[in-house]
Write a structure and sequence with these properties.
alpha+beta; 137 residues; 5 helices; single chain
């Protein structure tokens, strides 16, 4: 199984708001980037992802799960972009700040470091395990 990372400004959509959606989760719509689109197209139901608070907080704060596969995004009038549904699984016992991710040499090639603007990113198995350890899991 692959791992991923979803980014959101907490004032727009936080991990806490996602957790309030319960087991049904919610759609991850509004993405208008072709790289992020390809990442969502590659996702499978049941795959896990980090939830990252961008701009405010700048930390990996929780674990989410893809609970519905890729389909067209009804908010995109062009019919070009799609979405998946995600649900909150658990917060990290200790959020992992971006500064710590950048300071960890073994994470130097992580997309969060090398392509920080991308809103939906792949995470390697090695990076996943190390960030989970840094977050107290």
């Amino acid at each position: 199984m692959a791992h991923w990372l979803f980014k959101s400004e907490p004032s727009a959509w936080s991990f806490e708001k996602l957790a309030q959606c319960g087991v049904a989760g919610t759609d991850w719509s509004g993405i208008r980037n072709h790289s992020a689109k390809r990442n969502m197209q590659a996702m499978k139901v049941g795959e896990e992802a980090f939830f990252y608070h961008s701009n405010e907080g700048k930390a990996i704060v929780g674990i989410v799960e893809v609970c519905k596969g890729y389909r067209l995004d009804p908010t995109d009038a062009s019919g070009t972009f799609g979405m998946v549904d995600i649900r909150a699984l658990r917060p990290l016992p200790r959020p992992v700040p971006l500064e710590e991710v950048k300071a960890e040499k073994r994470l130097a090639s992580m997309a969060l470091v090398t392509n920080s603007r991308l809103s939906v990113q792949p995470v390697t198995a090695a990076d996943w395990a190390l960030v989970c350890k840094m977050g107290g899991l």
